[in-house]
Amino acid sequence: MPWWDLRSLSSFKNFRATILQDVSSERLKITATTGELFSPIDLPLIGRRNKQNEMREVQLGSHTVRSHGLTVARTHMHDWIILVLLVVIEVILYIIHPFYRFVGKNMMTDLKYPLQSNTVPVWAVPMYAILLPMFIFLIIYFRRRDIYDLHHAILGLLFSVLVTAVITDAIKNAVGRPRPDFFWRCFPDGKDVYDKLGNVICHGDKNVIKEGHKSFPSGHTSWSFAGLGFLSLYLSGKIRAFDRRGHVAKLCIVFLPLLFACLVGISRVDDYWHHWQDVFAGGLIGLTVATFCYLQFFPPPYHPQGWGPYAYFRVLEESRASTQADTSINPLNVNAVPMVMEDREDESNGSMGLHLPTNSGSAEDVEFGRRQYCT
């Protein structure tokens, strides 16, 4: 072979060795960073790795207060403004006087029950109807790290309670029905006085008399069913109570908040602050409003995707569409993470559906993690 061919061959070998060395060094850097081993053919696709990891995080529900909290709050800014307006309306309804209905002497037969204190005080209602559900929402958030679930659960709960409060107090003021203990509110000394038309002339404390005209419907009961009813719907979706597997123990968890709300309503009749019709109407109002507010943010509990809010699945769909678009642009990317939207039940899992998926490297592990998260 001529000497100039040998020199060309030697130069080509040196150039090839340099290229392979650079590829090997880059491969070692990537391996040290990601913990995975890549072949040289994968190197042009490494720039997509970060985006794939972001897609995986979206798929596994890693939306925290720090990363997405401000964005979610800004998206629902108008909803929070409406909540403030509802608070103002509720304060106004509480201050104004109710309708003072005609109460004659012959009507006092059912209004002479003793005046006694509340078994469930007023200050305790926000504790178990608002703070207790929020505490449970926080527990599930620290378990799943899903700000969409936490934000929409709190927002839906507050809407449920405040809308119920406005409806209840508006009806209270419009109806002005006397409480069962109205006689002793109106005549604390037991001496009843009536005008020439037969209507009562009360000489008791004005604030006590004012409260005596707010019997229908029961505020304690409506607030209880609004807050605890929302919590019951929320838990039924999280534990997949209607997954057709026959776990009756799940229904005990679902019915427990409703049982407590019923006991609160019964206490209002036992304390002679309300008639039974007041309690029935209050419970119906609270539970109806809670159902509407819950369905505004979450699928029905019996739905296959009833474990998560609508917003979570919307983000998941957008991420899947973005990944499919990127994959169609570069069909050689065999490491792309598939964003499967079908809801599949994990037949091997239990009943609670509050399991965190583990971050896996392969596409199959990621898909298994999503299934475990959805269960």
From TrEMBL:
Residues 346-375 are annotated as: Disordered. It is a multi-pass membrane protein. GO terms for molecular function: phosphatidate phosphatase activity. Residues 152-294 form the Phosphatidic acid phosphatase type 2/haloperoxidase domain. InterPro entries: PAP-like (IPR043216), PAP2/HPO (IPR000326), PAP2/HPO_sf (IPR036938). SUPFAM superfamilies: Acid phosphatase/Vanadium-dependent haloperoxidase. GO terms for cellular component: membrane. It is found in: Membrane. Keywords: Hydrolase, Membrane, Transmembrane, Transmembrane helix. The chain crosses the membrane at residues 80-100, 120-142, 154-175, 220-236, 248-267, 279-297. Its main location: membrane. One of its GO terms (biological process) is phospholipid metabolic process. Belongs to the PA-phosphatase related phosphoesterase family. This is Phosphatidic acid phosphatase type 2/haloperoxidase domain-containing protein. The lineage of its organism: Eukaryota, Viridiplantae, Streptophyta, Embryophyta, Tracheophyta.
